[in-house]
Specification:
With 164 residues, this protein is mainly α. Helix content is 62%, strand content 0%. The chain starts with 10 loop residues before the first helix and ends with a helix.
């Protein structure tokens, strides 16, 4: 926005701070306050939208979509901070859907660099181990040493052992 309008230098940090506040409020289950903040942000963008500022127009449209979503799903929005503090799982089907669509896009044959099913499976194993905090220990373990809790039937074989 600053690139398109030099007089927005003062407004941008405020909008950025307000957007971060909305994110924090949604994470902490303070939906009504997040809705009020979103309405205020959209109101601040309204004059810029009338002036056909493309950046402000896009931000206004995205903010309006988010506001509609939050209003429509007010009762279903979870207090993720409370779940996190209680050591409960924090995940959403929306995030899982986004991951699935990104992986599916990379596996399409018409892509310049597509993944094989085996490669995608191995990548997901590495990513899961990293998220679970097990990757460092797995990499430090001896390569051929079997893990006690995983049957050897399900362990991937190194490429050189498969060829032998």
């Amino acid at each position: 926005m600053v690139r398109s309008r030099s007089d927005l230098v003062e407004a941008l940090p405020t909008i950025d701070r307000d957007i971060r506040a909305v994110k924090w409020r949604l994470w902490h289950g303070r939906v009504d306050r997040a809705i009020r903040d979103l309405e205020r942000i959209i109101g601040q963008l309204q004059p810029l939208r009338r002036e056909n500022n493309l950046c402000a127009l896009r931000l206004h449209n995205l903010g309006s979509q988010l506001l509609t979503y939050v209003r429509s799903n007010r009762g279903a929005i979870i207090n993720y901070a409370a779940r996190y503090r209680a050591s409960l799982r924090v995940a959403t089907t929306l995030a899982e859907s986004a991951v699935n669509s990104l992986v599916a896009k990379r596996m399409v044959k018409k892509q310049q660099m597509c993944w094989s099913q085996h490669g995608a499976h191995l990548l997901m194993q590495v990513r899961t181990a990293e998220i679970n905090g097990e990757l460092r220990n797995r990499l430090r373990a001896r390569f051929r040493e079997p893990e006690p809790q995983v049957p050897s039937l399900f362990k991937p074989k190194p490429p050189l052992l498969q060829a032998a």
